[in-house]
Amino acid sequence: MILLCRTALALGLVAGFFVFCGCGKKSKLVTVTGSVLRNGQPLPLSKNGYVQVTVQPDVDPGKAFTPRIAECDKATGKFEIRDIPAGKYKVGIQQFDPDPTTDKLQGAFFVDTGKIVRDLDGKTPLDIDLAKPDLGK
Description:
By secondary structure, the chain is mainly β.
């Protein structure tokens, strides 16, 4: 009986530690909105063309992650990505036009190059102007 009480007390202390330190908390999920433009205008696209935005957590090499992808509205360049954990992300832009397998931007803004890195909090829009040297920061 005493062993059972000690075990229960130990488990209670361990569980309390995790609750207190926040180890059991999940990251806050946010909706990221934004736009991809060039000189303040949506990228020109053919009938079948589209602009793709990829956000990938900026994590250490070897750490697992899940990239998220959105397609920009042709008329406005706006996009939305729902339910991603708030945090620091690499952002990639690709323009598939007219062929859906060829990036018209020739990989200049590929997510793995990490040229665009932003803190995504769901409050500040992720607006990128490809013509600006600072990429619309």
